[in-house]
Structures are given as structure tokens and as C-alpha cells.
Design brief:
single chain, 118 residues, mainly beta, four-stranded antiparallel β-sheet, globular
Amino acid sequence: QVQLVESGGGLVQPGGSLTLSCAASGSIFSINAMAWYRQAPGKQRELVAVINSGGTTNYVDSVKGRFTISRDNAKNTVHLQLNSLKPEDTAVYYCNARKFGYVTRDYWGQGTQVTVSS
């Protein structure tokens, strides 16, 4: 099992920045990819950024050039740096861990609210 706890969300003005953190515990040494998703009320959960076991990253087009996902293995944490924030970035952001195998398993944090408003 993997336990994920997000932190770092809050209220920020448009153009501002936030850093989200996800602390992982449990079976953290298995093959996996880590990702950040977000979900606004009434909308589907959206993949925002992913980093795989080889360090390859990918981002949804709407955040490219503004968000950066990184992983600090020494601290068992994943971060999402959010820059140049826009009101449309407002959502609950969730940390995700995916284990690949015969079946794919996903683990989720509780979410952290990001609100971008003036």
C-alpha cells in the first residue's frame, strides 16, 4: 500500500505561485509513476503532470511552461511548482501513485485546494 498526503494549497492571486508537496509512505520502492491531478466541481478529474520511474515528465497543454513536477527521492516527496497561476487553475489537486503490473493500481492523496482569485 502507498499512503499519500498533499500539502501546500491555498489562495493565491492570478500570476502568483504555489508549491504543492506530496509525502509518500508505505510501499514506495515499487515500480510506479507519480502524478498530479486536479478536479474542479462538476468537471472530470484531469491529469496535470506526471513523472515516471525514468524521470520523464509530461504535462497537460494548459500548464506547459508554467508548472513543473519533480520528485525528491531522499525525502519521498513529489512536488508540483505552479507558476503564473490563472483562475482556471482553481481546483482540488490530488497526488497520484501508479503501480504497474498484471493490474494497474492507483493510490490517491486526500487532495489540497488551490484557489486562484484576486
